[in-house]
Specification:
CATH architecture of the largest domain: Roll
CATH class of the largest domain: Alpha Beta
Distance between the termini: 26 Å
CATH superfamily of the largest domain: Diaminopimelate Epimerase, Chain A, domain 1
Radius of gyration: 19 Å
Number of strands: 17
Oligomer: single chain
Number of helices: 5
C-alpha cells in the first residue's frame, strides 16, 4: 500500500541571476516554521536551491502580499528582483493583472508586467549618508556610502571589480558596527560611462556574493547619480550577465538637500519550471 503524500506546489523564477522559489500561500497552506522551510528548500545540491523563498499571500490594501525569506531563514523587508519575479508569477497564474500593487514589509510596491519585462517602482530611499570612512582593521579604513532602498545597502566605488575580494571584504563591511544591528548588503561599483555601471554584491542572509541584487542595483545607481557620476536611466551590469535598468528623478531643494522620486527597477523575468515537493520532505531537516 502506497501512502498518499501531501504535496506543496511551487514555481521557480529567475531574474538577473537571482532565483526564487515562489509558493501561492493565499489559502495559508503554510503558516508555521517558515524560516525553517526556507533554509531547507533554498539549499543547493541537497534541495530545490534558490536565493530566497517567496510566499504570495492575501493583502488588505494591495492586490497581494509578498513575504520573502533568505536561505538562512531571515526575513528581509523586501527584494527588488524577487518583487519582479512575484509580479510575473502572479500575472502568469491569473492572480494579479499586468499592473498591480504588492504589499511588502518596506511598503507597497507598484509593478508592471510587459511580457518577460517587469518593472517595479520602489519607495523613496532613506538614510542616505555619503563618503564616510569605517575602520576595518587597525590602520585600515574603507570609504563607504549608505542608502536604504527598502533594505539597507552600503555602496563602495572601485576601479577594478575583478580584483575585489567580495566575500571577505563584503562580510567585513556587512557586519561592521556602523550598520548594526541589522547589517547591510554591500555593493562594489565600477563606473562604465555616464549611463552605465558594473556591480558585484555581497548579500546578507545569503552571506556570500550573489549573481545580482535588485535593490542593490538601485542603491548603486542612486548613489552614483547623487554624486554626479551617472545620469538616469542607468544600465546596471550584474555579475550574472543581466543588465538591469534603473530610472529615477532627483529633486533639488534649497539648503543643498536632494531627494529621489520615481525610482523604477526593470529587467527580464523568466519562469524556470513548476514543481511539487512532499510536505514531509520540505520540513524534514
Amino acid at each position: 500500500m502506497t501512502l498518499k503524500r501531501h504535496l506543496i506546489s511551487f514555481t521557480k523564477m529567475e531574474s538577473g541571476g537571482n532565483d526564487f522559489i515562489i509558493i501561492d500561500n493565499r489559502k495559508r497552506i503554510l503558516s508555521r516554521t517558515l524560516s525553517k522551510l526556507a533554509v531547507n528548500l533554498c539549499q543547493r545540491r541537497s534541495s530545490i536551491g534558490a536565493d530566497g523563498l517567496i510566499l504570495l499571500e492575501k493583502a488588505d490594501k494591495a492586490d497581494y502580499r509578498m513575504r520573502i525569506f533568505n536561505p538562512d531563514g531571515s526575513e528581509p523587508e523586501m527584494c527588488g528582483n524577487g518583487a519582479r519575479c512575484l509580479a510575473r508569477f502572479a500575472f502568469i497564474k491569473g492572480i494579479g493583472s499586468a499592473e498591480a500593487v504588492m504589499e511588502t514589509r518596506a511598503g507597497n510596491v507598484e509593478a508592471q508586467v510587459r511580457g518577460k519585462k517587469v518593472k517595479v517602482r520602489l519607495g523613496n530611499p532613506s538614510g542616505i549618508d555619503l563618503n564616510f570612512k569605517i575602520s576595518l582593521k587597525p590602520g585600515i579604513s574603507q570609504k563607504v556610502n549608505f542608502i536604504n532602498t527598502g533594505v539597507p545597502h552600503a555602496v563602495v566605488f572601485v576601479s577594478a571589480l575583478n580584483k575585489v575580494d567580495v566575500k571577505n571584504l563584503g562580510r567585513a563591511i556587512r557586519y561592521h558596527k556602523r550598520f548594526a544591528p541589522s547589517g547591510a548588503n554591500v555593493n562594489f561599483v565600477a563606473l562604465q560611462g555616464r549611463n552605465s555601471i558594473n556591480i558585484r554584491t555581497y548579500e546578507r542572509g545569503v552571506e556570500d556574493e550573489t549573481l545580482a541584487c535588485g535593490t542593490g542595483a538601485v542603491a548603486s545607481a542612486l548613489i552614483s547619480g547623487l554624486q554626479g557620476k551617472v545620469s538616469s536611466p542607468v544600465k546596471v551590469h550584474t555579475r550574472g550577465g543581466e543588465i538591469l535598468k534603473v530610472e529615477y528623478i532627483i529633486e533639488r531643494h534649497k539648503k543643498g538637500k536632494e531627494k529621489f522620486k520615481g525610482v523604477w527597477l526593470e529587467g527580464e523575468v523568466r519562469l524556470v519550471y513548476d514543481g511539487e515537493i512532499a510536505r514531509d520532505l520540505a520540513f524534514a531537516r
